[in-house]
Amino acid sequence: MRILYVEDEKYLADAVIHVLEKSGISVDHAEDGEEGLNLALKPIYDAIVLDIMLPKLSGIDILRDVRERGIKTPIIMLSALSQVEDKIKGLNYGADDYLAKPFKTAELAARLRALVRRPALNDEKIICYSDLYYNLEDRTLNELPLSEKEAGIIEALLKNPEHVLNKEYLLSHVWGSDASGEDNYVEVYISYLRKKLEKLKSKAKIKTIRGLGYKLCSKNSS
Amino acid sequence: MRILYVEDEKYLADAVIHVLEKSGISVDHAEDGEEGLNLALKPIYDAIVLDIMLPKLSGIDILRDVRERGIKTPIIMLSALSQVEDKIKGLNYGADDYLAKPFKTAELAARLRALVRRPALNDEKIICYSDLYYNLEDRTLNELPLSEKEAGIIEALLKNPEHVLNKEYLLSHVWGSDASGEDNYVEVYISYLRKKLEKLKSKAKIKTIRGLGYKLCSKNSS
DNA sequence: ATAATATTTTAAGGAACTTTTAAGGTTTCT
DNA sequence: AGAAACCTTAAAAGTTCCTTAAAATATTAT
């Protein structure tokens, strides 16, 4: 299970993340409303946890925007004690659950599990890495349609993120096992893919390891 | 269960729709009285929820018109607190239930379920997606008659909305299991269907996924 | 049965997109 | 500097898909 957690109080966030990850829930963390909204729009989370008081955009704003776009990912709202009105607003705008601060992290984990144990709305087959999500069914990378060869390459890279794949491997996997020579095929398509990653403004990059091959990695990673 | 919800306050509507859909009620939404009336006349809803204060046509107007045409779909009226007079009017014109604003969405859901648990007026076999309703009995798509092949294809697409169906699948399902070649059959009929969706001004579109097949999707969805 | 109408098949041209090819440019390493 | 590996680009070649209309077939009405 992968969730998004939008929370500006850093100490709290770190503690909560630590406990959640320990119990097998993978957490992406956003520290303000703007970043939170951006991430929330990606169809890769099983649930979203929103603090209400946030810099730039409130949790309510995020909730509203997300729901307006028809995204149905389960959402849990967090807010400081006694802001009962927020609770009502949140539930009205389509939140799935509400938790008053301070809360026990274990309870949050439990509610997340309860929410996500519902029949999957997402039966899509999606491979994720960093801010990329590739849909195997319709061959789209972050909604952008790819051609067959582009798709073959990005799929191989996404299935082996941060690992070097050499050209012979890519050739035989994408073009066929006869692997008749042309390294340039791969070079051309790597170039096309880089252009598309650029267009998507993705943090992920395809790095060249000279003499060895290519690897997919996230901008800030080594 | 599929209902029509006519409501002009967008935020409220989104929140309510979200909760209803989550509880398994499929909701079509109209934002003003005119659109509401148009939709209300389609024989596809198990119930209709009408706000009273609406642009263009009031909920009362819609109610009256719908009932005058002999349509017996259960109707719930919504109105701002204390407009008791509206309540009386509504029930007089043949509303089935009445709910004062603000209301709890869960209560609306409960009342809907109660209303619809009555003997079904609609035993027609209809498949819906987005603003499309296809009647299996007389092979009409939003009242527009289709030929056998057209019907076969739209039926397959409607039964698998937002999923890619390839040509071989469509060929074998519509033309027969021998699936003798001709991809062009499918292409021709997809073209005919697109023309009809256009004519119906539907929000739904048939998308081509080059090399893979076709998928039905709603304009704004991915 | 025959004509009128509608549907399905066939076919062909062209539009849109993909892949291959090729050539020139850049980077990296020795 | 020179060589090898890699990048980028664009034109050529190849595919797939769209659209249309006429021919063949089936259906319905007269």
Can you offer a commentary on this structure?
The structure is a homodimer of 222-residue chains. Helices cover 40% and strands 23% of the residues of chain A. Chain A has eight helices and eleven strands. A five-stranded parallel β-sheet of chain A has the order 2-1-3-4-5, sandwiched between helices. The model of chain A has no long low-confidence stretch (mean pLDDT 84). The interface between A and B is medium-sized, with 19 and 22 residues. The structure holds a DNA duplex (30 and 30 nucleotides).
Care to give the gist of this entry?
The structure is a homodimer of 222-residue chains. Chain A is α/β, with parallel strands linked by helices and 222 residues long.
Intertermini distance of chain A: 26 Å
Q: What is the β-strand count of chain A?
A: 11
Strand order of the largest sheet of chain A: 2-1-3-4-5
- SSE ordering of chain A: EHEHEHEHEHEEEEHHHEE
Q: Helical residue percent of chain A? A: 40-55%
User: How many distinct helices of chain A?
Assistant: 8
The structural class of chain A is alpha/beta
Share in β-strands of chain A: 15-25%
Q: Largest interface, with Cβ-Cβ < 8 Å? A: A-B, 19 and 22 residues
Per the principal axes of the C-alpha atoms, what is the gross shape of chain A?
A: elongated
Low-confidence stretches of chain A: none
Query: Which radius of gyration of chain A do the C-alpha atoms yield?
Result: 20 Å
Quaternary state reads homodimer
| Largest β sheet strand count, sense and barrel closure of chain A | 5 strands, parallel
Q: Mean of residue pLDDT of chain A?
A: 84
